[in-house]
């Protein structure tokens, strides 16, 4: 039996174009394509697919249920890009023993945590 692997995530929205713009402009994905009605963004080995659905509301009522963790090379630069998009912050950028963390709220109310790990913390993992 082979092991399962997370390859992609579907993020549904009542306004997928607005959500796509926030992720694409603020978080600098490796790839940004459109496949049929899906906007497909590549972050490392994982694809984030953004599409619309009739069974979701305009805002996520329980945003802490699933938090997207994005590892970034320069957390300060990522925060600056997101600030230019008028991002709301659940937790501002903070230094945790050399690693940087911040939690943004995307336009649909989902939590997105930015993580810049220190070399020391990477080595310990």
Features of the shown structure:
3 helices; 125 residues; four-stranded mixed beta sheet; 8 strands; globular; single chain; alpha/beta
Describe this structure in words.
The protein has a four-stranded mixed β-sheet, with helices on one face. A four-stranded mixed β-sheet has the order 5-8-7-6. 22% of the residues lie in helices and 40% in strands. It has 125 residues and is an alpha/beta fold.
Q: What low-confidence regions span 5 or more consecutive residues with pLDDT below 50?
A: none
Helix content: 10-25%
Percentage beta strand: 35-45%
Head-to-tail CA distance between termini: 27 Å
Shape: globular
> What is the arithmetic mean of pLDDT?
95
Strand order of the largest sheet: 1-4-3-2
- Structure class: alpha/beta
Radius of gyration, in angstroms, nearest whole number: 15 Å
Number of helices, counting only DSSP H or I runs of 4 residues or more: 3
Summarize the helix and strand pattern as letters. Answer: EHEEEEHEEEH
Number of strands: 8
Largest sheet: 4 strands, mixed
What is the compact description of this entry?
With 125 residues, the chain is of the alpha/beta class. It has 3 helices and 8 strands, in the order βαββββαβββα.
SSE diagram, text form:
Blueprint: E1 8-13, H1 16-27, E2 31-35, E3 38-43, E4 46-52, E5 68-71, H2 75-84, E6 88-96, E7 99-105, E8 111-116, H3 119-124
Parallel strand pairs: 1-4, 5-8
Antiparallel strand pairs: 2-3, 3-4, 6-7, 7-8
